[in-house]
């Protein structure tokens, strides 16, 4: 069972590994908060006590189940329909074959974290009645242009299977995948009358012609999400067809797609026809042209995008919908900022990533937003802005501070006074152990923490950050996701060992420029019992140490490394080879990027290792830029 526990997306097949002695240990699965809220506590308590105290008498061939107190199977059928958390469902499906079958028949949503870990046919056999499917493909590093564009992640085989099977499927989410116009055409033809949600999230390979097939045929579409996808723009007919054909749209998002053929008349018609429209995020569109849209979109709660190209005083005529509480205006400057003031106290989410505000502007605006729960901005906010945030926004749950041109450090404890924070991601040019200790002392609800230490400053106040990292991990016991990207000397082998020791519940981790020797990595890998996905960059570790660490991390199912001490032959990676474990190599390569002044610069991208568990075997669509690592080819 241990091997198949790694496939939390529901793509495992545990038929061949049932043993009664192992089944007993699986009965003590925890329920998520969502499951607890959706079922009668007394009913759940009774059901689970029966399972734990009486156990199951499971025949060795797993063909029969008997519950000692006679609880009928229909009771379990009722319970399982109220359990929606995938980890809970995974644990349930491992109890016995019959529960495995019931889970497969009743599961409504599945996330496949890497599309090469299974096949469309295997997924169809396992989950026949899916309503919602999310597929991810390219490694996360693709978002930072670190992965070759032709790496893979083609959606075509999945769309072909969806067209043939999955008759109940209504919601599709493709993330970091290559989607062709022909894929969208097939989806429209096969799923047009049923499809309610289509998310093409950071995808590429398609054009507005493909979108036209979707908007013309999928008249029940409630969600169309295209954010940060690379779309070839032919014209704006796709949006016009959406305006003509749809009356049920609730979410429209083509933010950061750089689509320019957008007619504000189409947006206005969508707002008039779709009375349930609650979220719209668009590309650059003059805000003054959207006055009619805002007037018609009475139910709108979220808006993102727009642009400002007229004199500031003209924007006083813009009136936003009364329910608007999530806002992100692109290119908003100091002079345009007052248009937010009348409803600033109603805002729960504020995106300032593409606003043109300085530190003082941040301070002024944040003071007027006491009910903020989410804020995204750049590190121009500075320590002063963080102090204002801590004083003014006591309900804040998510804080994201990305890199900007004006980089300032977070050095004092005043910037981390939002005690309800659950998510914190910051880019800083300076940091101290005391700041990290303060986070560990005060932010007890943190589930996701990410810190990037920039290399602009010649000198950092205090390195290594071993003690601060230890205090943070000891204090933030709820952490499930953890990223720490430092600079050489930022974390010693001792500090790396602390991460392994004090991260019992972390499932995803990104580490950059940490540790000093292989010994630090091996000490780290003796801990982290829950770690499933590990990403590393710019580290000093050898191939052999990486291979041994991958084996010692008992829950690991995905490893991506860029920048390591590569051997001449690659033989050292043989230590990592074991069943169901695919290994891919991307050699070092030269890439042309834009410099700070817009000039083209050639940079060297170090070699990559990508390794992951898969029930599908080695993939067959390797491009020339990727090499399959096979033991029999390594000598």
TrEMBL record:
| Biological processes per GO annotation | SCF-dependent proteasomal ubiquitin-dependent protein catabolic process
The record's annotation in InterPro entries points to: COI1_F-box, LRR_dom_sf, Transp_inhibit
Annotated signal peptide: none
Q: Name one GO cellular component term.
A: SCF ubiquitin ligase complex
- Domain (Transport inhibitor response) spans 129-174
Q: Which residues form the COI1 F-box domain?
A: 69-109
Q: What is this protein called?
A: Coronatine-insensitive protein 1
Organism whose genome encodes this protein: Camellia sinensis (Tea plant)
What lineage is on file?
Eukaryota, Viridiplantae, Streptophyta, Embryophyta, Tracheophyta
């Amino acid at each position: 069972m241990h091997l198949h526990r790694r496939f939390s997306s529901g793509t495992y097949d545990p038929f061949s590994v049932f043993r009664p002695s192992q089944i007993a240990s699986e009965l003590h699965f925890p329920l998520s908060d969502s499951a607890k809220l959706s079922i009668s506590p007394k009913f759940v308590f009774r059901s689970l006590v029966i399972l734990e105290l009486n156990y199951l008498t499971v025949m060795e061939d797993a063909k029969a189940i008997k519950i000692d107190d006679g609880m009928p199977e229909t009771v379990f059928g009722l319970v399982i329909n109220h359990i929606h958390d995938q980890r809970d469902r995974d644990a349930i499906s491992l109890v016995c074959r019959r529960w495995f079958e019931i889970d497969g028949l009743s599961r409504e949503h599945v996330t496949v974290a890497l599309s090469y870990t299974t096949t469309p046919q295997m997924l169809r056999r396992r989950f026949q009645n899916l309503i919602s499917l999310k597929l991810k493909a390219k490694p996360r590093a693709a978002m930072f242009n670190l992965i070759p564009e032709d790496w893979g992640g083609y959606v075509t085989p999945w769309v072909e299977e969806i067209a043939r099977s999955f008759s109940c499927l209504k919601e599709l989410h493709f993330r970091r995948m290559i989607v062709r116009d022909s894929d969208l055409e097939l989806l429209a033809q096969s799923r047009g009358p049923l499809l309610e949600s289509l998310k093409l999230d950071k995808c590429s390979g398609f054009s507005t012609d493909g979108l036209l097939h979707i908007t013309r045929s999928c008249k029940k579409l409630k969600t169309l999400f295209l954010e940060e996808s690379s779309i070839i723009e032919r014209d704006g007919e796709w949006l016009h067809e959406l305006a003509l054909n749809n009356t049920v749209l609730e979410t429209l998002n083509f933010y950061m797609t750089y689509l320019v053929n957008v007619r504000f008349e189409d947006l206005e018609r969508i707002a008039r026809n779709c009375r349930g429209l609650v979220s719209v995020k668009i590309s650059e569109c003059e805000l003054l042209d959207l006055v009619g849209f805002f007037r018609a979109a009475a139910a709108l709660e979220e808006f993102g995008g727009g642009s400002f190209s007229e004199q500031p005083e003209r924007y006083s005529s813009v009136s936003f919908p009364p329910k608007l509480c999530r806002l992100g205006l692109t290119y908003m400057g100091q002079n345009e900022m007052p248009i937010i003031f009348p409803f600033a106290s109603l805002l729960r989410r504020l995106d300032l990533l593409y606003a043109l505000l300085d530190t003082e502007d941040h301070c002024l605006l944040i003071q007027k937003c006491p009910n903020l729960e989410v804020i995204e901005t750049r590190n121009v906010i500075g320590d002063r802005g963080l102090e204002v945030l801590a004083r003014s926004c006591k309900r804040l749950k998510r804080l994201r501070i990305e890199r900007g041109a004006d980089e300032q450090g977070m050095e004092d404890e005043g910037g981390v006074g939002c005690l309800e924070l659950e998510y914190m991601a910051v880019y800083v040019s300076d940091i101290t152990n005391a700041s990290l200790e303060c986070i560990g002392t005060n932010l007890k609800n943190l589930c996701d923490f990410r810190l990037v230490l920039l290399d602009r400053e010649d000198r950092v106040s205090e390195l290594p950050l071993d003690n601060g990292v230890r205090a943070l991990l000891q204090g933030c016991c709820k952490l499930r996701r953890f990223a720490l990207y430092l600079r050489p000397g930022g974390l010693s082998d001792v500090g790396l060992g602390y991460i392994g020791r004090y991260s019992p519940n972390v499932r995803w981790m990104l580490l950059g420029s940490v540790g000093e020797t292989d010994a630090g990595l091996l000490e780290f890998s003796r801990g982290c019992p829950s770690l499933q996905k590990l990403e590393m960059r710019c580290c000093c570790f050898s191939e052999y140490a990486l291979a041994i660490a991958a084996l010692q991390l008992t829950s690991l199912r995905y490893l991506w490394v860029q920048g390591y001490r590569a051997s001449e032959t690659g033989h050292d990676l043989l230590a990592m080879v074991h069943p169901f474990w695919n290994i891919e190599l991307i050699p070092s390569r030269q890439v042309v990027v834009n410099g700070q002044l817009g000039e083209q610069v050639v940079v060297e991208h170090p070699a990559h290792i990508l390794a992951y568990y898969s029930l599908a075997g080695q993939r067959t669509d390797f491009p020339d830029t990727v090499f399959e690592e096979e033991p029999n080819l390594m000598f």
